[in-house]
């Protein structure tokens, strides 16, 4: 047991097959004594193969063992719930605040690592329904894992994210996210860093910082802001509902956020999520994707921010990637950024 740099209490243990499990509790919570995982699972044998596309330079990962992963189990058999007598799960304790463990069906391992982040033991909650304190604890867990995973020699990029909604492809309904610690730079990150490098050489300033400053000055696409963060619809949004959340200070990753910045993020993020769910009076399917600086290459060019993306283009309509998007990577949007921003401002007023 130890305390993370920003105050959460961390308790480490292992599952029966040797995978790591970490509990994160408030600093003033009772000391946790982890229960034993009694399932007697065999040692995992994930196999991942990496191939580089000669036409694009993108790394493609093949992880065929994931075809056997758990898929939409009944609610009373959810592997992310706390364990109950006679029903052991991935989390042996009878209750928890935030829990992080190595994915049993990882996209890659050996080089790199995949983890699952359970936001709460309450199966029926979503991130939107967390208290600000609980959301703040998740931020501490993300930050702690980012720091630890970034220190590994086989990791080049750390990517915390959440998929919500069956429309997105979620296979477990329990409120949770994941962390991919890539052994390579993902294609989007390579593109962003190349653009940031070109911009730095031409303008002498940081691309992301200047985008944030321009959005705050213009104001037409800003949704909400507080002392340390601003949420806005980007000028060239790709998705029907897309909001970016930026800290006002350039930091490389979650681990570099101050106490006050973490507090303000939790407040602002919950505000934005409530606006998402008020848009059509329904839980909006979304992907929440943390963009941070690479671990080693071009780290000084990165700027931590969260991109929140939804594929719902109307109350009863979903945007699917069609020929232009899937075949050419050229997005055609059915919604205008300024209109989306105005709508999200109104539902929060």
Automatic annotation (TrEMBL):
**EC id:** 2.7.7.12
Substrates-to-products reaction catalysed: alpha-D-galactose 1-phosphate + UDP-alpha-D-glucose = alpha-D-glucose 1-phosphate + UDP-alpha-D-galactose
Coiled-coil segments on the chain, per record: none
Q: Which Pfam family is one of those matched by this entry?
A: GalP_UDP_transf
Q: Where is the Galactose-1-phosphate uridyl transferase N-terminal domain?
A: 105-186
- PROSITE patterns in the cross-refs: GAL_P_UDP_TRANSF_I
Q: SUPFAM superfamilies under this entry? A: HIT-like
Q: Which residues form the Galactose-1-phosphate uridyl transferase C-terminal domain?
A: 197-306
Pathway annotation from the record: Carbohydrate metabolism; galactose metabolism
Under InterPro entries, the record lists:
GalP_UDPtransf1, GalP_UDPtransf1_His-AS, GalP_Utransf_C, GalP_Utransf_N, HIT-like_sf
Molecular function terms from GO? nucleotidyltransferase activity
The answer to whether keyword Metal-binding applies is yes
EC category name? transferase
What the entry lists under NCBIfam families is as follows: galT_1 (TIGR00209)
What is the designated name of this protein?
Galactose-1-phosphate uridylyltransferase
Q: Which organism is it from?
A: Kribbella sancticallisti
């Amino acid at each position: 047991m130890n305390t993370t740099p920003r105050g959460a209490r961390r308790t480490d243990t292992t599952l029966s097959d040797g995978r790591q499990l970490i509990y994160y509790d408030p600093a003033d919570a009772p000391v946790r004594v982890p229960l034993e995982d009694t399932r007697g699972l065999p040692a995992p044998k994930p196999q991942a193969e990496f191939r580089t596309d000669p036409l694009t330079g993108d790394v493609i990962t093949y992880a065929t063992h994931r075809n056997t992963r758990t898929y939409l189990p009944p609610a009373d058999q959810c592997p992310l719930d706390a364990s109950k007598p006679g029903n052991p799960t991935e989390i042996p304790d009878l209750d928890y605040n935030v829990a992080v463990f190595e994915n049993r069906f990882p996209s890659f391992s050996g080089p790199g690592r995949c983890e699952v982040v359970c936001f709460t033991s309450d199966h029926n909650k979503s991130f939107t329904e967390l208290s600000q304190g609980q959301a703040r604890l998740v931020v501490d867990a993300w930050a702690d894992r980012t720091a630890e995973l970034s220190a590994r020699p086989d990791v080049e990029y750390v990517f915390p994210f959440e998929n919500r909604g069956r429309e997105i492809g979620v296979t477990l309904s329990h409120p949770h996210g994941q962390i991919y610690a890539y052994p390579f730079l993902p294609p989007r990150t390579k593109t962003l860093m190349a653009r940031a490098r070109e911009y730095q050489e031409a303008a002498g300033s940081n691309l992301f910082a200047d985008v944030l400053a321009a959005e705050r000055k213009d104001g037409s696409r800003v949704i909400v802001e507080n002392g340390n963060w601003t949420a806005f619809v980007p000028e060239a949004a790709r998705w029907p509902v897309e909001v970016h959340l930026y800290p006002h200070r350039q930091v490389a990753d979650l681990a570099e956020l101050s106490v006050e910045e973490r507090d303000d993020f939790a407040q602002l993020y919950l505000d934005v999520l409530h606006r998402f769910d008020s848009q059509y009076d329904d839980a909006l399917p979304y992907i929440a994707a943390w963009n941070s600086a690479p671990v080693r290459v071009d780290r000084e060019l990165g700027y931590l921010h969260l991109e929140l993306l939804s594929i719902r283009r109307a109350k009863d309509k979903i945007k699917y990637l069609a020929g232009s998007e899937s075949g050419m990577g050229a997005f055609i949007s059915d919604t205008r950024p300024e209109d989306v921003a105005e709508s999200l401002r109104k539902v929060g007023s």
